[in-house]
Write a structure and sequence with these properties.
alpha/beta, Rossmann fold, Helicase, Ruva Protein, domain 3, two-stranded antiparallel ribbon, 16 helices, 11 strands, about 15% strand, globular
């Protein structure tokens, strides 16, 4: 079997696993097809996800279901204003050894897991939020001058409520940038809400099967690295990100008027990583421009910093990203 045939076979297996994961998650989660698709895409690509939506839409349930379907060790941290960094990463405690001598021993915190739910992350202070920066980028924790590696694969899925802002601390740009996708969880429609209420009243118990495990996820990542990203496709991702900067030659008029600072290089990486997953999920071994455009809003929206006019006019970052996608030509 040639290398091309092997890659195509791996793409077909990836497609099968991807669809089975989606089907299994939807046994528990009603509706939210786009959110589920993007969350699974980010996890398979090795990215972190920020879920934003009002209470009661199933954000926490989605993360728990993903933990079961992907067979990952799962822990949840409820972020509160009095939460300290040591409550997340752990701390050094003094113990007495067999020889009677005192020595420091590191007690691991709940962050030592594979799938971490940071529930209502914006309720913790910036100091506590910053405890996640290293882990989200490098998959490690450094304390007392010693670096501890987390068990791969490691993901952070965080939630926040966009309405109730009293007693919250906005996430700094450095932390937002470490989320591959930011997903807006919309309200359910009439049929979906009826289904949720029916399940609740009848107390129907649903169970999900384990579709893949940690080892298989790491294998799927290796397949992702083989997906072809042609030079024009890579350049298109770069131009999309540059177009979010107001001083760029590619920037649309709306970006120049309302944006103070555009997306970082991680935005390009998120576009390509998401595009690779989408390509394989369709049984293809190459990324297209449609794959990149498909995740533009989730990859770039939370990386835009509005200027004063943008904030005063209550401009939607989704509309700004849409303007970028519409006005940046596919061919340079």
């Amino acid at each position: 079997m040639s290398d091309l045939e092997t890659l195509q076979a791996e793409a077909n297996q990836f497609k099968d696993d991807f669809q089975r994961i989606l089907q299994e998650v939807h046994k528990i989660i009603v509706g939210q097809e786009r959110v589920v698709e993007c969350a699974v895409t980010a996890l398979l690509a090795g990215g972190n996800v920020l879920l934003e939506g009002v209470p009661g839409l199933g954000k926490t349930e989605l993360v728990k279901t993903l933990g079961h379907v992907l067979d990952l060790e799962f822990r949840r941290i409820q972020f509160t204003p009095d939460l300290m960094p040591a409550d997340i990463i752990g701390t050094n405690v003094m113990n007495t050894g067999p020889d009677g001598a005192y020595r420091f021993e590191f007690r691991r915190g709940p962050i030592f897991t594979q799938l971490l739910l940071a529930d209502e992350i914006n309720r913790a202070t910036p100091k506590t939020q910053s405890a996640l920066l290293e882990t989200m980028q490098e998959g490690s924790v450094t304390t007392g001058g010693v670096t501890h590696q987390l068990k791969p694969p490691f993901f952070v899925l965080a939630t926040q409520n966009p309405i109730e802002q009293e007693g919250t601390y906005p996430l700094p740009e450095a932390q937002l940038d470490r989320f591959m996708f930011k997903l807006n969880v919309a309200s359910l429609n009439r049929a979906e809400l009826n289904e949720v209420v029916t399940r609740t009243i009848l107390q129907r118990s649903s169970s999900v099967a384990k579709i893949v495990d940690a080892a298989r996820i790491l294998q799927l990542r290796q397949v992702l690295d083989k997906v072809v990203v042609a030079d024009p496709i890579r350049d298109y991702a770069v131009r999309l990100v540059l177009a979010t900067h107001p001083d760029s030659e590619f920037a649309p008029e709306k970006i120049k008027r309302y944006v103070k600072w555009g997306a970082s290089p991680r935005g390009s990486q998120a576009l390509i990583r998401g595009g690779r997953v989408r390509a394989l999920a369709a049984g293809r071994a190459h990324v297209s421009t449609d794959d990149l455009r498909n995740f533009a809003s989730e990859s770039l929206g939370h990386r835009l910093l509005l200027n004063y006019d943008g904030q005063a006019d209550n401009v939607s970052v989704v509309d700004l990203v849409k303007a970028v996608v519409e006005q940046v030509p596919v061919e340079a």
